[in-house]
Amino acid sequence: PPSAGRLPAKVPPNLQLRSAKRLLVSQLFQPFNLQVGEEAGWEGRAGEPACRSQKLMLQGGLVYPSVPGCYYYLPPAVRAMEKLVKVVDGEMQAVGGQKLNMPSLSSAGLWRASGRWDRMGPELLRLVDRHDKAYCLAPTHEEVVTELVAAQSNLSYKQLPLRLYQVTRKFRDEPKPRFGLLRSREFYMKDMYTFDASEEAARQTYDLVCDAYRSLFDRLGLPFVKVQAATGSIGGTMSHEFQLPADVGEDRLLLCPDGHFAANVEMLNGERTSCPTCGEKLTQTKGIEVGHTFYLGTKYSSVFNAVFYSAKNKPQLAEMGCYGLGITRILAASIEVLSTEDSIRWPSLIAPYQLCLIPPKRGSKEEEEGVTLLERVYDDLTEALPHLTGDLVVDDRTQLTIGKRLKDANKLGYPYVVIAGKRVCEDPPVFEVWNQNAGEVLFLTKEGIIELLSKVQVP
Amino acid sequence: PPSAGRLPAKVPPNLQLRSAKRLLVSQLFQPFNLQVGEEAGWEGRAGEPACRSQKLMLQGGLVYPSVPGCYYYLPPAVRAMEKLVKVVDGEMQAVGGQKLNMPSLSSAGLWRASGRWDRMGPELLRLVDRHDKAYCLAPTHEEVVTELVAAQSNLSYKQLPLRLYQVTRKFRDEPKPRFGLLRSREFYMKDMYTFDASEEAARQTYDLVCDAYRSLFDRLGLPFVKVQAATGSIGGTMSHEFQLPADVGEDRLLLCPDGHFAANVEMLNGERTSCPTCGEKLTQTKGIEVGHTFYLGTKYSSVFNAVFYSAKNKPQLAEMGCYGLGITRILAASIEVLSTEDSIRWPSLIAPYQLCLIPPKRGSKEEEEGVTLLERVYDDLTEALPHLTGDLVVDDRTQLTIGKRLKDANKLGYPYVVIAGKRVCEDPPVFEVWNQNAGEVLFLTKEGIIELLSKVQVP
């Protein structure tokens, strides 16, 4: 029997789907959806090598190539990125992080002061403005943030530690941009800069931020290793990388199987084959760098005179650290390490959408009943679990079989898929529910679905 | 009597304030806070004229000047901006907007194809990469988005309208950057691009997006006028601006007092003094442009061949529109039009923090009792109204008088200020509550405060 508020029964079922504010696959801007049956130019620009995440992200309509090393982030990728940023914000604010936002245009003078205008070489994108003043597009903000803090007169030791961070677009003119979002020329990075009153305090900050990174990757369900790393052009006296082991990774790591030692080979002098602590044979693996921490000491604070006033009211250089997370790189790296050859798997917390609902095929005998029941599942879910509004999508391409749409849903990596199949005609109606990350299929009533999804977290 | 969970009475009261995860003014990175008693270089760079919002935003530690026309957005400004973006997202998604994110590096070829590589002149920031390829930093994305849509083969009329938008950093080499965030060289803009199957449909989209802009400014409580405007370098056949009347505005507007006519003088040929509809004398006012809409027709779709397939399966050029909102400019313009000479007033919905709590002065006889009670207000508020967590700040600078801190809170524009004054010793304890936007002072119990704040909306 038609429920209250439903449209009259004469309206075709898939027009009913469109009548309410429900998200419909047919209306989503996803090249995947637009080019059914085609493999949309996933090999990228001519000659560019592809990896699994690049292929899957192009195929699935998450990104689209623009100029070399630059991508359009399409709507599902933006959703995933915004969720990831919320999770990162939570972790950063839990360790006292305060979010700011610094300019991309960075004066040559600032970079000359630190010596990096020359040292960074062709990785720095440079330009002049209408007055012929020289700038670079900042790939990182040590100089810029230190100038800000140096400008605050009367900064007291009582106000330290200062832990400032941003999530912004960065620029780096990579010699070989490749692997999609894994190595691009424009990318989003979370960069935190910390200012402490003593070396001891700065080391506590360092450990605290490393713990926040651990917590982040644990919550995302990403297997990572923390390795000793070279300080490179950033500088400082201690550095670690957070790496996701993956064949496509560009870093080579040496790991002690018992966890006593882990390092990026680039920081080792010569060959090392056994663990310096326990003597075990080290194993080698490749990794994708997703986070990088640096203990900077006074390298930048001394250049820009970033001082605070001590308890004795003496000016003293701040002890600094900097801490990066590759936001867009984490999206791609997650897909790289979690997915199968042809199906995206997301960390549940940041999947663009949590649930895809698949109504019966047009003209099938379950059509009428199935569409009505699925609408009710959608509406009751958003009522019972309002935080999931926006995370539910109906695949209304009812000209396609359920099987074809399930295959697409599989490819795109919705954590849950609910199908109105033959058993919707039972009393009570039963739906087929795919829990993708658990790898199981359940048969549940509407109430069972609500119960199952009540455990889903969105940031 | 000390409540359960409080620290032992021997701990100094303002250490108690620090013991829990409460936001404390003394720990916030606000130059305002850091430079008590100083007016932190608000006049900006040498010779740059200042306006009210620029002065207040610099004084209040919302922004700090970097290279000319570029600003650090400091933590409270980032909070306000993130709230504004949420409100904008809601309005855009309510009209079917899908959010994407396009690169800043934009190839010269694309801009040459549209003719804007030359036409934009020195406003375009240009650079070459390591391979000597020429790019600009996109100030707007008509070319870039049209190329994306043109690349989607098989786009069907059934998938239209497409309403794609982004909120990203834009670059424009202004000849005279000034007035802080009102005219800067780096800024955040929301830009939507729409693709329709017919002129009629495109005009419906145009009206719909204009209505969304009205709704946005109404929700922010900002008085605006929608005026006819010139199409400028963007082009197209129809354009409107959303303007906030203000003396510092750089646009001159002619308005019919009865609302029959409103236009930017730049789009009128010669002088016009009376309304073309009703003959009333037009009044002139200055305005800050905060939104701009363009009906583009096929100006860009014809250049890049952005076609869809009609019901008869014929390729047809999409009818386009584009729609901008100056995100960072809206922040400054809001402050410009709502504030007094020396006190920031925010649209309530996007105030960085909703409430400032002021405990008694150190050493006063209310200190012990007041701190304890204020802690309870803070904790009970976050429990009863969890969506306000993060919106409450304690001004723990208890070395300062209540009066001094109230003055600061006034300047910074918290919509609500709760003071633990002499009446906290009454039974039940009574707090002094300033409702800044209503311009009233109330005396309320803790329960009264929770009741009052239960009406506060955060996006």
Automatic annotation (TrEMBL), chains A, B:
<dbReference type="Pfam" id="PF03129">
    <property type="entry name" value="HGTP_anticodon"/>
</dbReference>
<keyword id="KW-0067">ATP-binding</keyword>
<dbReference type="GO" id="GO:0005759">
    <property type="term" value="C:mitochondrial matrix"/>
</dbReference>
<dbReference type="InterPro" id="IPR033730">
    <property type="entry name" value="ProRS_core_prok"/>
</dbReference>
<dbReference type="InterPro" id="IPR045864">
    <property type="entry name" value="aa-tRNA-synth_II/BPL/LPL"/>
</dbReference>
<keyword id="KW-0030">Aminoacyl-tRNA synthetase</keyword>
<keyword id="KW-0648">Protein biosynthesis</keyword>
<dbReference type="InterPro" id="IPR050062">
    <property type="entry name" value="Pro-tRNA_synthetase"/>
</dbReference>
<keyword id="KW-0496">Mitochondrion</keyword>
<keyword id="KW-0436">Ligase</keyword>
<comment type="similarity">
    <text>Belongs to the class-II aminoacyl-tRNA synthetase family.</text>
</comment>
<dbReference type="GO" id="GO:0005524">
    <property type="term" value="F:ATP binding"/>
</dbReference>
<dbReference type="Pfam" id="PF00587">
    <property type="entry name" value="tRNA-synt_2b"/>
</dbReference>
<feature type="domain" description="Aminoacyl-transfer RNA synthetases class-II family profile">
    <location>
        <begin position="82"/>
        <end position="347"/>
    </location>
</feature>
<comment type="function">
    <text>Mitochondrial aminoacyl-tRNA synthetase that catalyzes the specific attachment of the proline amino acid (aa) to the homologous transfer RNA (tRNA), further participating in protein synthesis. The reaction occurs in a two steps: proline is first activated by ATP to form Pro-AMP and then transferred to the acceptor end of tRNA(Pro).</text>
</comment>
<dbReference type="GO" id="GO:0004827">
    <property type="term" value="F:proline-tRNA ligase activity"/>
</dbReference>
<keyword id="KW-0809">Transit peptide</keyword>
<dbReference type="InterPro" id="IPR004154">
    <property type="entry name" value="Anticodon-bd"/>
</dbReference>
<keyword id="KW-0547">Nucleotide-binding</keyword>
<protein>
    <recommendedName>
        <fullName>Probable proline--tRNA ligase, mitochondrial</fullName>
        <ecNumber>6.1.1.15</ecNumber>
    </recommendedName>
</protein>
<dbReference type="InterPro" id="IPR002316">
    <property type="entry name" value="Pro-tRNA-ligase_IIa"/>
</dbReference>
<dbReference type="InterPro" id="IPR002314">
    <property type="entry name" value="aa-tRNA-synt_IIb"/>
</dbReference>
<dbReference type="GO" id="GO:0006433">
    <property type="term" value="P:prolyl-tRNA aminoacylation"/>
</dbReference>
<dbReference type="InterPro" id="IPR006195">
    <property type="entry name" value="aa-tRNA-synth_II"/>
</dbReference>
<dbReference type="InterPro" id="IPR036621">
    <property type="entry name" value="Anticodon-bd_dom_sf"/>
</dbReference>
